[in-house]
């Protein structure tokens, strides 16, 4: 069966069972995620900061003394992916590294004053972005959306043993 024929077959099956793309929650999650990511990237542009480095910086600010391995666990990142992010944040003077007193192989990360200030600016920009993005939802709907989305991704976290 060719690609065109497979597509027509899948469309026919979808019609037969009464399911359309709009019926899939994953479709709506993806659309919302793209909408959010595009807005977040634009919001952070004045700081020359992307969403993943922002998440890493906020984690260091919220959990002073955290290690890179712990950040990876908290954010669901691969260890190899955090190395360039930390290098960029380090070059910008946003955190300090100190050896762990119990194991010199581990470095604990602490935000600098500049890092705390940059994190505060990022929070303000992302908060404004989320206000625009979620303007049609009242406070209760926003809490419910956050609760339901967390329930979905926590399920993934639990299944991976994190």
Describe, in short, the structure shown.
With 162 residues, the chain is mainly alpha-helical. It is built from seven helices and three strands, in the order αααβααββαα.
Could you walk me through the main structural features you see in this protein, from its secondary elements to its overall organization?
The protein has helices spanning 3-17, 25-44, 51-62, 68-75, 79-91, 113-133, 139-159; strands spanning 66-67, 95-100, 103-111. By secondary structure, it is mainly α. It has a single domain (25-159), classed as Winged helix-like DNA-binding domain superfamily/Winged helix DNA-binding domain (Arc Repressor Mutant, subunit A, Orthogonal Bundle). Strands 1-3-2 form a three-stranded antiparallel beta sheet. Strand 2 and strand 3 form a beta hairpin. The radius of gyration is 20 Å and the shape is elongated. The chain starts with a helix and ends with a helix.
Layout of helices and strands:
Elements: H1 3-17, H2 25-44, H3 51-62, E1 66-67, H4 68-75, H5 79-91, E2 95-100, E3 103-111, H6 113-133, H7 139-159
Antiparallel strand pairs: 1-3, 2-3
Helix pairs in contact: 2-6, 3-5, 3-6
């Amino acid at each position: 069966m060719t690609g065109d024929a497979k597509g027509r077959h899948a469309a026919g099956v979808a019609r037969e069972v009464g399911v359309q793309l709009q019926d899939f929650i994953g479709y709506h999650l993806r659309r919302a995620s793209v909408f959010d990511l595009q807005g977040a990237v634009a919001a952070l542009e004045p700081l020359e900061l992307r969403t993943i480095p922002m998440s890493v910086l906020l984690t260091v600010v919220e959990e002073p003394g955290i290690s890179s391995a712990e950040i990876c666990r908290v954010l669901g990142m691969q260890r190899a992916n955090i190395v360039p992010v930390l290098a960029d944040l380090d070059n910008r003077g946003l955190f300090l590294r100190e050896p762990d007193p119990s194991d010199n192989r581990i470095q604990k990360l602490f935000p600098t004053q500049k890092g705390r200030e940059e994190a505060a600016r990022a929070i303000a920009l992302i908060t404004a972005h989320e206000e625009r993005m979620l303007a049609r939802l009242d406070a209760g709907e926003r809490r419910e959306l956050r609760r339901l989305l967390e329930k979905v991704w926590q399920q993934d976290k639990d299944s991976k043993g994190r």
